[in-house]
């Protein structure tokens, strides 16, 4: 037995070494949404993508799985039936590969894979068992779980309890930056991805990579045993990586709308490259987008000196998007993927035509929004009268898709964090506005997970207004729009002194109030800037950039985002934006009398 355990650990070590020697690179679907002109060069781009693991060239026949999964969180009966048909094929394909892999001709597939677990140490004991398991044990047709000190005959229920228990342990505190979990929660999707391993911690880094490899084995085990629903919603990108499916441009738009809008979309227009370079004031080169964890890096050898041209623009976009997705997690993703393939090789997955949506059904199931739980873990205004009662009655009467749509409008995501509404931070809130009238639509503050209603005269009036609340382009209607409304008047920001780019891409502003740190925060500064049409509060996340804002300073601003914070407009200078001194002093005076950040705005019907 000791020899078997030693051999199993050696197999795992070899698999881990293979993973770390070949960092992950995502496959891209190059015929996606890059536009007609760029799509014509797809074949050339495929041949020239050695840095990307594969570039698929195929025509899409249905909407992106990622968009469907994150926006609805549910699957159709047809998809569930399709998965059930594929599972037996997957099992047959996997067992058909055994003869090629057997290290000993006399090895035979075992009937049971037995695990002895202490419930109080469920994750540690499970990981040790999965590290020491021979691969023929992992492929056993039946699981037998025994909890220390508990008497129960496992007819499937104990195994299901084990899958759920390990899933809960993996997802616990995934949303916290201080968590020791090997998984973390994606900011935009509230779904799980590998947590970056701190490379400076050499002693613990190998253990973290090993845990991710074992996590891949655990996910494969859940797949192999009929799709055990796990309380750990994996990111659709991870699901795609596990089955070897390509990423689509629509996935990128969903993952980070700011990245797509500021770094990709401008380059898709016929004269996009020229406009972007004019706004930047310098040529575009093959460099990645810098992030909080990683500075800009060459997308290919010599990329810092290689200019982007119309001929190589498609290649640049593929490499840029791939680096944005994977550059911070290449080793982590490869360990997770290789652990999964160690149990269910890609050859078997493809033989069964298993898709990312099938894997999502296998691992996370199809769970609805529990209205009772939603209401129980919500903060509600005490003096709201009948309006809030009507609101919950209407939510109860909604279809599952409409509930998801409402949830996304109010919180920014159609999916809940692990732990459901109880784990949603801040708590969901329903408030009643003292301003406006019953003709106003509800609006949302996604930063605090709150929907704001008005004092509607009837339940049907409220139902009508809620039916018009639609999330748009991955964000809510109260965010990312420079035309927020109050009293029927639209707000237009900084329209007088725009540089080349036609869409406010390059604004010239003057500072009227120097940047100051926002009270109660550690990394947010605010200043007031504007032109001769009005001024607005500018919010910074970087002290060095904020220091550019001195009273009277002339500023050139690019790639910023407009946000609503509790009903007040802010222009946000985030990691995608540029905020620099202007090349020369500006002659106009900012119109401080028109401060669009000084009034609370809300959406009304147009």
TrEMBL record:
InterPro entries in UniProt: E3_ubiq-protein_ligase, HECT_dom, Hect_E3_ubiquitin_ligase, NA-bd_OB-fold, OB_Ssb-like
Superkingdom to which the source organism belongs: Eukaryota
The protein's Enzyme Commission number: 2.3.2.26
Keywords: Transferase, Ubl conjugation pathway
Reaction equation(s) it catalyzes: S-ubiquitinyl-[E2 ubiquitin-conjugating enzyme]-L-cysteine + [acceptor protein]-L-lysine = [E2 ubiquitin-conjugating enzyme]-L-cysteine + N(6)-ubiquitinyl-[acceptor protein]-L-lysine
Single biological process term from Gene Ontology: protein ubiquitination
Transmembrane segments: none
SMART domains: HECTc
Enzyme class: transferase
A Pfam family the protein falls into: OB_Ssb-like
GO molecular function, one term: ubiquitin protein ligase activity
PROSITE patterns: HECT
Signal peptide (UniProt feature, chain positions): none
Active site: 447
GO CC terms in record: cytoplasm
Pathway: Protein modification; protein ubiquitination
Domain HECT per the UniProt entry, residue ranges: 135-466
PANTHER family: E3 UBIQUITIN-PROTEIN LIGASE SU(DX), HECT DOMAIN UBIQUITIN-PROTEIN LIGASE
Protein name: HECT-type E3 ubiquitin transferase
Organism this protein belongs to: Symbiodinium necroappetens
Lineage of the organism: Eukaryota, Sar, Alveolata, Dinophyceae, Suessiales
């Amino acid at each position: 037995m000791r020899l078997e355990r030693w051999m199993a650990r050696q197999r795992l070590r070899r698999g881990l070494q293979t993973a770390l020697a070949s960092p992950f690179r995502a496959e891209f679907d190059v015929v996606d949404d890059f536009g007609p002109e760029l799509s014509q060069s797809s074949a050339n781009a495929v041949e020239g993508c050695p840095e990307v693991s594969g570039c698929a060239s195929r025509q899409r026949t249905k909407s992106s799985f990622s968009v469907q999964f994150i926006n609805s969180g549910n699957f159709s009966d047809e998809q569930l039936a399709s998965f059930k048909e594929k599972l037996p094929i997957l099992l047959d394909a996997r067992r058909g590969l055994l003869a090629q892999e057997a290290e000993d001709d006399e090895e035979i597939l075992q009937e049971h894979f037995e695990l002895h677990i202490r419930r109080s140490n469920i994750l540690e004991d499970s990981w040790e068992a999965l590290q020491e398991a021979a691969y023929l044990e992992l492929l056993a047709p039946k699981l037998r779980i025994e909890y220390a000190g508990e008497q129960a005959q496992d007819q499937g229920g104990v195994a299901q309890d084990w899958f759920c228990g390990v899933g809960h342990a993996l997802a616990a505190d995934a949303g916290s930056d201080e968590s020791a979990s090997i998984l973390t929660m994606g900011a935009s999707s509230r779904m799980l991805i590998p947590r970056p391993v701190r490379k400076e911690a050499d002693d613990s880094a190998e253990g973290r990579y090993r845990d991710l490899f074992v996590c891949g084995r655990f996910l494969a085990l859940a797949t192999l045993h009929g799709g055990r629903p796990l309380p750990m919603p994996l990111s659709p990108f991870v699901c795609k990586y596990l089955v070897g499916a390509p990423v689509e441009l629509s996935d990128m738009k969903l993952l980070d709308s700011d990245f797509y809008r500021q770094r990709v979309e401008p380059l898709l227009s016929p004269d996009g490259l020229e406009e972007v370079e004019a706004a930047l004031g310098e040529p575009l080169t093959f460099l990645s987008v810098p992030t909080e964890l990683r500075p800009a890096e060459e997308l290919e050898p010599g990329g810092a000196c290689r200019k982007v041209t119309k001929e190589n623009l498609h290649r640049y976009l593929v490499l840029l998007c791939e680096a944005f997705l994977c550059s911070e997690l290449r080793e982590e993703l490869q360990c997770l993927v290789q652990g999964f393939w160690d149990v269910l090789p890609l050859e078997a997955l493809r033989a069964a035509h298993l898709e990312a949506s099938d894997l999502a059904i296998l691992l996370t199931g199809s769970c609805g929004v529990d209205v009772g739980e939603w209401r129980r873990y919500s903060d509600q205004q005490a003096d709201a009268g009948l309006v809030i009662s009507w609101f919950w009655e209407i939510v109860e009467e909604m279809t599952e898709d409409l509930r998801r749509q409402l949830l996304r409008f109010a919180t920014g995501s159609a999916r809940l964090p692990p732990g459901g509404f109880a784990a949603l931070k801040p708590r969901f809130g329903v408030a009643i506005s003292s301003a406006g009238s019953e003709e106003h639509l509800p609006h949302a503050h996604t930063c605090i997970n709150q929907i704001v209603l008005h004092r509607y005269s009837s339940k049907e009036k409220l139902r009508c207004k809620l039916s018009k609340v639609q999330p748009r382009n991955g964000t809510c209607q109260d965010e990312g729009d420079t035309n927020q409304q109050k009293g029927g008047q639209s707000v237009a920001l900084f329209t007088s002194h725009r540089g080349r780019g036609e869409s406010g891409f390059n604004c010239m502003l003057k500072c009227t109030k120097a940047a100051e740190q926002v009270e109660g925060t550690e990394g947010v500064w605010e200043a007031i800037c504007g032109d001769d049409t009005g001024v607005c509060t500018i919010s910074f996340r970087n002290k060095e950039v904020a220091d550019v804002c001195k009273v009277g300073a002339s500023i050139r601003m690019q790639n910023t985002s407009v946000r609503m914070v509790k009903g007040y407009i802010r222009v946000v200078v985030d990691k995608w934006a540029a905020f620099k001194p202007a090349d020369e002093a500006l002659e106009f005076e900012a119109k401080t009398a028109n401060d669009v950040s000084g009034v609370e705005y809300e959406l009304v019907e147009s």
